[in-house]
């Protein structure tokens, strides 16, 4: 039923492109041990729900001749297994009920198609195709850790040298590298949500390849070569540090302290393995791993393990961006309040991060868009509404559910502010149905732009028209491709500005039709003013 409802969701919430990279950084020192027993205790405490998630049967069957034909046609990777795996994962009842945005987990099954799908040989071919600001590494500066981009005219040897001291990240790689564009598009088509793909490169022996931090994306991490240790923790209560964005902790001068009591996962990722981390869950990595540290190693695999020990760690971070693009109840609330002429801060002037943890979490739940709308749309199939109403009926049902949920969540978050109003009265007072419809339009537009970006990258011509879609571009073609990418990023920023303008009172069809639909308002607290928010896409260009 969920799979069928997903098809209906695709009709109502037609997708397209978007963008946003995550910034993982590197520090030094601090020795680490092998995966701890604390994570095993946490897993045991999680009970049967975690076991259901770990046993999701997402990996695809073995490659077929048709898959090879596809790879030959695009001169890229065979993307069908990726599509199958992502689709199986996001339509699994356990993932929808217990995993998404709630709990990190690692699949037990190996995604064999991912093993060696993107290696350092591919990096050597592709990395100089990225603008220098898209290739970065973490560095200590003052009391903080920041991303430092490569210098103009950098070479692969510069990257290799940098990797001696730090993890190097290929930001926005899915919008440029054909094979990674195929992977990104596979996830976009599965989720019907904005996707952002980065690649992380770490040599063996880094005691800290990324410092403890949080991100605003829900991420699917796919290890392709080498090995890396991950530790994932339960999020601290936002009210403990209300001045900080809970989705951007541990960056710049904001340093997070480890809390062993909050450790949820401590695992070594090997080629073909997939790890899911919800937005806002602190995590840290290192490459101080050896054969004894890997769980589940069989004696007969010693030779293969030794080969992996010598390879740098390469993993894809495929991020689902709902918070960056204002696709959460917190953002719907903020835009509806501003359009009604009211403050998006709490009634007493405090930031939204001052709310108790459970109220903050409910407010920052992603909107039921894309694959998340399937449970809402499933009753339409049972009632026969999908046959008669199609996309219009699906969209009306999604908007109605969003408005109802938004009103209930706002009443829970601030009961005193809305004293005397029930959910129906608040829904009418703030015109939440209208705000929900605006968010659906915004989502659809962002998906459209991003789809275009990924399709262009996936099927880009090579220099002089020869060599296939995976071949490196010449200087002229590379310049044109970068210009087109920046233009799309500008359109995404215009979309964000258009949503801000709508919440400020602009006509629903006026500026939006010219500039696209965007996501303003708020970050982690979804209460900061639009004037303080830099363009989401613009931040990715730097």
Question: Could you provide a short overview of the structure?
Answer:
This protein has 542 residues and is of the alpha+beta class.
Question: How does this structure look, described?
Answer:
The radius of gyration is 23 Å and the shape is globular. With 542 residues, the chain is an alpha+beta fold. Helix 5 (80-90) packs parallel to helix 9 (178-191), helix 11 (329-339) crosses helix 17 (475-503) and helix 12 runs antiparallel to helix 14 (385-413). It contains 19 helices and twelve strands. The protein has helices spanning 2-12, 37-46, 48-54, 65-74, 80-90, 93-99, 120-126, 156-162, 178-191, 302-310, 329-339, 357-363, 374-383, 385-413, 423-429, 432-458, 475-503, 510-515, 536-541, and strands at 105-106, 135-141, 144-149, 168-170, 195-202, 210-213, 218-225, 228-233, 263-269, 274-277, 283-286, 313-320.
